[in-house]
Every structure is written in C-alpha cells, then in structure tokens.
Amino acid sequence: MPELPEVEALAADLRGRLVGRVIRRVDVTEIAALKTFDPSVDALRGAAFTSADRRGKHLVLGVEGGLFLVLHLARSGWVRWREAAPRPTAGRGRGPLAARAILEASDGQAAAGPDGIGPGAGGDGFDVTEQATHKRLAIHVVHHPDQVLSIATLGPEPLDDAFTEERFAAILAHAGRAQIKGVLRDQQRIAGIGNAYSDEILHAARMSPFHPASMPADEVHRLYEALRQVLGDAVERAMGVPAASLKAEKRQGMRVHGRKGEACPVCGDTVRQVIYADSTFEYCATCQTGGKPLADRVLSRLGVRR
Prior knowledge:
Layout: H1 4-18, E1 23-28, E2 49-55, E3 58-63, E4 67-72, E5 77-82, E6 97-103, E7 125-130, E8 138-142, H2 149-152, H3 165-175, H4 180-185, H5 195-204, H6 217-238, H7 246-253, E9 271-275, E10 280-284, H8 285-288, H9 297-301
Antiparallel strand pairs: 1-6, 2-3, 3-4, 4-8, 5-7, 6-7, 9-10
Helix pairs in contact: 1-6, 3-6, 5-6
C-alpha cells in the first residue's frame, strides 16, 4: 500500500509534470472507483492543474475553477505517467486501469505532425491503476479536499512541526490499552502510516506490535523519535525517485517489513511474521519482544508450529 513517503514523493513528481497543463479529458473506466457525481469529471475538461499535494495517503490534485481531483490509492493502486497518447482500452472494467487523464499539448512540446498526431498533439498524462481482485481505489472530484470524508477525519500529519512529542503522547494516552501497531495505523489518530511503516517504526523503537499504546514517558520518547526518523528518512530517499520506481525503492528500504525469514539487520535474528485475515506484519523477536515469538492465531488454528 502506498503510504506517506511514497505519496509525498508521487505528489512532488506529478507537481513538476502537471502544474499548468490543461486537461483534455478524464476517463473513468472503473465506475465503482468514482465516489462523487457532482461536480462530474467532465467539469475538469479544459481546466489546468494548479497543484499536486498529499494529505495522509491521499493524492490531492488542484484544478482551475476551485476543483480538486482526489485519489486514494488503497492497497494496490498507483499512478503511472504516460508519455504519449494512449492506445484504446480493452473495455470498461477489464484489467487494472481505473481512470485515465489525457492532457492537451503544452507550449514546450514539439510541434505535431501534419496529420495532427505526434508529440506536439498532446495526449500524454497519467493512468490510475489498481492491481487487485477486490477494488478499493477511490476517485473524488470535489470543491474542497475536506469534502472527502476520509480526509476530513484524518489525524495530524506526523512530520508537521505541530506534531510534537506532547501531542503524540496525548494520542497514545487516549488510545489506552489498544495495541500500538493498530494505533499507528489508525488514520483518524495519525495520518499516513500504514502496515509497512508501522512495522519499521516499531522495529526502530525496539517495541512489540502488541505493546499497549499508553506507555511511560521514556517509551513515548523512544517511539516518537523512531517515528520521525523512519518517516523522515523514507521521504528523503523517495524524493526525486520517478513514480515508476517508487514501489521498488520502498521495498528496498524496508528493514523488517516484507523480510520474513531474512536476518534482522540489527541483531541477525530471523525476521518473523504474524498473519491476520487480510494482512501480515513482520518483526524481530530479539529486538522487539525479548526473544519471545508472538502468537499467530491463524497458524495456531492450522496447527503449525513456529
């Protein structure tokens, strides 16, 4: 799932490509992905992009006329830049394509050929895709980003200056006995952190995913420092990386997430995995749980020894 660092870098990449470019049209091929109807996507025709930003895990694209095209990429969505006019699609609802933005030619492009096609004819733009059986990607056209409920209810941005250790401590205290892994992933408590970076933050903090959110001040400090360091480093690594390479860069930067069976880079112990109904997480028992493997309910029900 794209999380704060990747969406931040994706927004920066698109900002350089989109701002000032005029929209020829936006085609939504996966109708279920479009969550709004007024304004319609047709209202974007002929307007220029004015901004490309991030809020939580949402990509927020500003458009002339006070409109915003908001994308939530869910678990398997992505935005793929397209240098040339698209080929005809295979048909509505088929394949990974959810939406396609086609741009008018820009002043800096080469002239079109006599037949009206070629690089100067425009047609470049981006595709919104989702490689998943269960489609969860969401597309909104709104007058203000806060009209998207999942944005309006977001918690604070963890890399903002206003996200102090004191504010973080208050969030954890309010969560009480809830498991810290879930609290870090709760978008209404803290924006932008998902499964992967919560694994990385907890590993850096040497803390169990099952640790209660309410904790002593010294542990709050250690976790806060780990959160800011892990996310800050990930954003720094991702900035400037082309959109097509961001997912690979994310995987390469992980120390425990997605590393089941590999050696922990800190202590050398084997990275372990816990399986849930629809997700997994990874951790190092030596670094995070005093050497004790965590219970895995799924494997326990199957009679698998770990």
